[in-house]
Each structure stands twice: as C-alpha cells, then as structure tokens.
C-alpha cells in the first residue's frame, strides 16, 4: 500500500518533467579562471558572490585560441576558461548545447589561478 502512495507523486513528477526541462542542469566541469589579474575581477570582487551566474561567450575567431570561451559577470569580462579545460565545452557550444556557468568558489588567494572557480553546466 505504501508503495502505491509513493508511486503516484513520482509518476506526476515524470509527466511534468518536460515542462521543467529548461531548469535541469548538470555540472560537467569546474575550472579556474584564466586571466583574472588582467580583467575586471579585481575591481568587481566585492560585488561578486558564489553562485552568481556567469555568461560564457564562445570566441572561435580568437587569434590565441580557436576554442576560447570568454567568461563574463554582469556584462564585465573576467577572463577565460583555461586552454586545458575549454576544448570539450567549446565543442558542445558549437553544437548548440545549452551551456551555462556560475561562480563555484571564490578565495582570497595570492595566486590568481586560485581566486575564482567557474562551474560549467549543461542544460537538459
């Protein structure tokens, strides 16, 4: 009897899942932010919070890296996904896969590579 009571809400959730498909995200990568010391991160640091949404902008014509992905917070450039971490994400973006980012971790570390972690999500 208890099993049937649990089955009905689960079935309702499964039927409603397509309506919530845009909200389902899977964490696929967590990377440091390259170039933090050269862009707006130092100036904007006190305003940023862990969990804030980041825009990921593909730059296929970037002269330094054909797989470049620029990272922005509220329209301000913070840096790039590191070359070692951007090839697969760029490939997914090029295929049209919905990819998003957020600030995963912030740390007041003297090493700029350890100050901000970018969490990358794929939308379902």
UniProtKB/TrEMBL annotation:
Pfam families: HIRAN. It comes from the Bacteria. Residues 1-21 form the signal peptide. GO terms for molecular function: hydrolase activity, acting on acid anhydrides, in phosphorus-containing anhydrides; nucleic acid binding; zinc ion binding. Keywords: Hydrolase, Metal-binding, Signal. The keyword Metal-binding applies. Residues 26-124 form the HIRAN domain. Gene3D superfamilies: 3.30.70.2330. This is HIRAN protein. It comes from Zoogloea oleivorans.
């Amino acid at each position: 009897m208890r099993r049937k009571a649990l089955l009905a809400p689960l079935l309702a959730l499964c039927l409603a899942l397509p309506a919530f498909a845009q909200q389902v995200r899977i964490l696929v990568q967590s990377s440091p932010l390259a170039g933090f010391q050269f862009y707006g991160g130092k100036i904007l640091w006190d305003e940023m919070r862990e969990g804030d949404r980041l825009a990921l902008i593909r730059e296929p014509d970037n002269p330094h890296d054909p797989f470049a992905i620029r990272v922005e917070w509220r329209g301000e450039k913070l840096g790039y996904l590191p070359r070692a971490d951007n090839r697969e994400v760029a490939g997914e973006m090029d295929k049209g896969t919905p990819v998003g980012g957020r600030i995963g971790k912030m740390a007041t570390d003297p090493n700029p590579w350890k100050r901000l972690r970018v969490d990358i999500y794929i939308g379902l």
